[in-house]
From TrEMBL:
Similarity remark: Belongs to the DNA repair enzymes AP/ExoA family.
Species: Adhaeribacter rhizoryzae
Pfam families noted in UniProt: Exo_endo_phos
Marked site positions, Transition state stabilizer: 149
NCBIfam families with a match to the protein in the record: exoDNase_III (TIGR00195), xth (TIGR00633)
Molecular function (Gene Ontology), one example: endonuclease activity
Positions bound to Mg(2+): 7, 34, 147, 149, 247-248
Ranges for domain Endonuclease/exonuclease/phosphatase: 4-248
Signal peptide range: none
The keyword Manganese belongs to this UniProt entry's keyword annotation: yes
EC number annotated for this UniProt entry: 3.1.11.2
Annotated protein name in UniProt: Exodeoxyribonuclease III
Keywords assigned by UniProt, alphabetized: Hydrolase, Magnesium, Manganese, Metal-binding
Length: 258
């Protein structure tokens, strides 16, 4: 079973890129972030023609998450991250697919810092940690995946000294990510590639992609049930170089059957 996550940076603007990538790679499940489209403008019919059904949580101009599946049933089990009924941002979607619970998330960026956007990020992170604890207590196969907007370590960024005051790399943000791992989650990419330089995002400015001046901010966290089933993982880096592509590249894992 191949599962991917991809921050598309506007699904309708990047639809040709998304469809091309789906045709080439044919993942079984895809989690998308930053749809930047209201609920009614999601291109469900076009995606269905590509062989995928989906559920989505849209929002006009900003945010938005979706889970797509090919030849598999999707059962939505959660919409919105618990813990704050006043939070209207579309950043979390949870579903059962092929007996695996999948949480698709788009964690807030948090810049500029300090300020209300960073405060919101840390509050959202705390709510995510609470939900992650609840999920582990279910004692079932679970994946949390998406754009975490966290650079976990210096290994995960080109020239880390330039990011010391950024909300993606502040000590409290990195610690919040480590706290998730300490709950019992496993970072799938680092499980298989503990020492390699791996990036998932390259800015549009200063020829970042051409210079390979990237970041690793798109992650797969696996519950203990799934770690023995992890057989492969990677980043479809070349997609970032396609015309009119997102500034993120798709990230994927493969799981063996039980």
């Amino acid at each position: 079973m191949k599962i991917a996550t991809y921050n598309v940076n506007g699904i309708n603007a990047r639809l040709p890129v998304l469809l091309r990538w789906l045709e080439f790679t044919a993942p079984d499940v895809v989690c998308l972030q930053e749809l930047k489209t209201p609920q009614e403008k999601f291109p469900a019919d076009i995606i269905a023609e590509a062989g995928y059904q989906g559920i989505w949580h849209g929002q006009k101009s900003w945010n938005g998450v979706a889970i797509l599946a090919r030849n598999l049933e999707i059962k939505e089990v959660g919409r919105g991250l618990p813990g704050d009924e006043t939070d209207t941002q579309s950043r979390y979607l949870e579903a059962m697919v092929n007996n695996i619970r999948i949480g698709c998330l788009y964690l807030p960026n948090g810049n500029p810092t300090p300020g209300p956007k960073f405060d919101y990020k840390m509050q959202w992170f705390e709510r995510l940690a609470n939900r992650a604890t609840e999920l582990l207590a279910l004692d079932e196969p679970i994946i949390l995946t998406g754009d975490f907007n966290v650079i976990p370590t210096e290994q995960d960024v080109y020239r880390p000294e330039r990011w010391l005051e950024d909300a993606l790399f502040l000590p409290e943000v990195r610690q919040a990510y480590q706290n998730l791992l300490q709950q019992g989650w496993t970072d799938a990419i680092r499980k298989l590639y503990p020492d390699e330089k791996i990036y998932t995002f390259w800015d549009y400015f200063r020829n970042a992609y051409g210079r390979d001046a990237g970041l690793r901010i798109d992650h797969f966290l696996l519950s203990p049930h799934l770690v023995p089933r992890l057989t492969a993982a990677g980043v479809d880096r070349d997609v970032r170089g396609w015309e009119k592509s997102s500034d993120h590249a798709p990230v994927w894992i493969e799981l063996a059957d039980k």
